[in-house]
Amino acid sequence: MNKERKNLLVFGxxxxxxxxxxxxxxWMKHGLSLNKVxxxxxxxxxxxxxxxxxxxxxxxxxxxxxxxxxxxxxxxGLMLTIIFYLVFTPVGIFMKLTGKDPLQEKIDKQAxxxxxxxxxxxxxxxxxKQQF
Length: 132
Hints:
The protein is built from 3 helices and no strands. It has helices spanning 3-30, 34-52, 58-98.
């Protein structure tokens, strides 16, 4: 079975199950009404179309995925913005106020070089065998 067919099957049957669950949940909470019958009908149609010919739901699937990608891009950008301003910005401000410089980026005008001297003989060749 190719990947596209599998994705269509999962989408068709999955959407039918989700619509059925929503309709039954609403029915149990608020009683039977037209909108619950419409949801159950839509679930039945998706289940029937998927079982008869999975290619029939392909236009719905492609449009659904386009909308999902747009929503995913918006949510990703929003989450990254929130994380940046709520996590990294306060940490940066705190480090600036306390004078911390973990990367040692301060410029020293009297220093001849920024290279760190390595002590000879401190390396053990066995540590290269198992790096992780």
